[in-house]
TrEMBL record:
UniProt xrefs under Pfam families: LRR_6
The protein, known as: Uncharacterized protein
Gene3D superfamilies given in the database record: Ribonuclease Inhibitor
GO process annotations (BP): SCF-dependent proteasomal ubiquitin-dependent protein catabolic process
A cellular component annotation (GO) from this entry: SCF ubiquitin ligase complex
Amino acid sequence: NKITDEGIRRLIQLHTLNASFNEKITDEGIRCLIQLHTLNASHNKKITNKGIKHLQLKILNASDNSGITDEGIRHLMQLYKLNASFNEKITDMGIRYLMQLHTLDASYNEKITDEGIKHLQLHKLDISYNTKITDEGIKHMQLHTLDISHNTKITDEGIKHQGTNVPIAKLHTLNASRNNNITDEGIKHLQLHTLDASWNNNITDEGIKHLQLHTLDASWNNNITDEGIKHMQLHALYASYNKKITDE
C-alpha cells in the first residue's frame, strides 16, 4: 500500500479513512485530520491512543489493534459505532463512558462483559465467541440486531419476553448459528425479519412458522423443512446442505 502519512496529512477535510493493514499511516498522519469522524484502524498498531485522542470520532474500528485501549476511547464521547473485536485492551472500563454508543462489536473480546454493557443503550450488538456476555447482560436491552453465534451463554431466557420488563420483541435480526441454547421457545414470540438458524437444530419448523421472515439461513439445519417455510414470503433463503428444503 503506497498511501502514507505524507499523502494524507494535507487532506484536512477528510472525514472517512480506512487505514486497515497499512502501518505507513500512523498517529503522526492522522493527528491533523480534525474533520475525521470515521476511522478504520484495524490491524494497524501504528495508530494508537496518541493519534485518536484529539479526534471527534463517531465510528471507530479498533479490531486487532492493541495500540488503541480504554485510555484512548474513553475520551470519544460522541462515539456511535465501535468494533472492539480481537482487542482485549478495550474492556468494560473503556466502554462504560460511551453513552452515545449505538453499535458494538465485542466478538472475540472477553474483556467486555455484562458489567460493561449494562448501562449502554445499544441498538446493534455482536457478542459471538464472547461468553462473558450472558443473558443477564442483554435481557433489559431493546436491541434491533443481535449476533450470538457460538455464544452458548445466551439462551432462550435472554431473548424472550421478560415478563413486565420492556421485551426484546423489537429484535429485527438474530444470528443464532451454532448456538443450540436458542430454541423454538426463545424465538417464537419475536418479530424477526432476519434469522440465521444455520447449524442450530433446536430451531425447527415449529419455531419459525409464525414469524414473518424476509431472510432465513437454514443451512446445515435439517429441522427446518419445506413445511416450515411454505407460507413465508421470503426475499432470501440460504439452504446449503439442508436436504429437507427442496425445489418443491
